[in-house]
Design a protein that fits this description.
heterodimer, A: mainly alpha, B: mainly alpha, two-stranded antiparallel sheet, 2 strands, about 5% strand, globular
Chain lengths: ~130, ~140
């Protein structure tokens, strides 16, 4: 199974891997989502972007399995940008799911960034 | 569990899926509608709202999850195996398991619970040139 970011996203969007007519559009939206993820504090500090189907998820997540939700998050956000549904019900559901994943990814990031500091012993007053 | 999403998704047409899900129940009983306090408590819970969004997204907001039957009005998420008061009170997995849930319209939902096999979903009417008369 491929781990290519572009191929995975195209597959979830229902686009055949060999059909490349929309690749430029999808890459553009994928990179927009990566900039959002960067603002959430995820991925390489200098930012991350793709140019084709060679970039893989591990390059973004660093192999951290706690960040696997970025794959679903990518689908939801790219779907809403590239192929927004015609019904408000579906738009709302996709947005709600994306928001939940955003929150959960933020929790992963917060846990890494702000560990509970060790408690220092209180010095007794002389 | 007698009905499941895995089995349902094997059927491709709306008619096949409708026949698979048909319940023929009594009004009120099948959806524990007589116990309004419980009904409102359950359908207002955060857990239900979360799983509801998941199911709608999974089914692409299509009636019984069949492509081409997009729901534009009065969408409901239906329990394939109906809930009872006891199931909700004691927290059975049937309540929030996506395997037991499917997107429907109010019309289809009511037909599944109280109707018969003759029900036909309301489909989109194709517009044509010079079609200016109301239906």
């Amino acid at each position: 199974m491929t781990d290519s970011i572009l191929i995975n996203t195209k597959k979830t969007l229902g686009i055949d891997v060999l059909y490349t007519a929309f690749d430029v559009d999808i890459i553009l939206h994928i990179n927009s989502v990566f900039s959002t993820l960067n603002q959430l504090g995820l991925g390489p500090i200098e930012g991350f972007s793709i140019t084709g189907n060679t970039e893989i998820w591990a390059a973004f997540t660093g192999g951290d399995m706690n960040l696997n939700a970025v794959k679903s998050y990518m689908y939801l956000r790219v779907r809403l940008l590239f192929d927004p549904p015609s019904t408000s019900y579906l738009i709302t559901s996709l947005e709600e799911q994306a928001r939940e994943l955003e929150w959960r990814l933020n929790v992963v990031r917060e846990f890494e960034t702000y560990p509970i500091p060790p408690v220092e012993p209180i010095e007794e007053a002389v | 569990m007698t009905r499941s999403y895995s089995e349902l998704s094997q059927f491709e047409t709306f008619e096949e899926r409708y026949a698979y899900l048909l319940l023929r129940g009594d009004v009120g009983r099948a959806t524990f509608g007589f116990d309004r306090y419980l009904n409102q408590m359950f359908y207002g819970s955060r857990e239900w709202k979360q799983i509801r969004h998941f199911v709608v997204a999974r089914d692409n907001a299509c009636d019984l999850g069949v492509p081409g039957f997009e729901v534009n009005d009065r969408l409901l998420v239906h329990h394939m195996n109906p809930l009872t008061k006891e199931i909700v009170i004691y927290g059975d997995e049937l309540t929030l398991d996506p395997e037991n849930l499917i997107t429907t319209t109010l019309l289809t939902h009511n037909a599944l619970h109280f109707g018969n096999a003759s029900f036909k979903p309301r489909t989109m009417i194709q517009r044509s040139r010079g079609d200016t008369r109301l239906w």
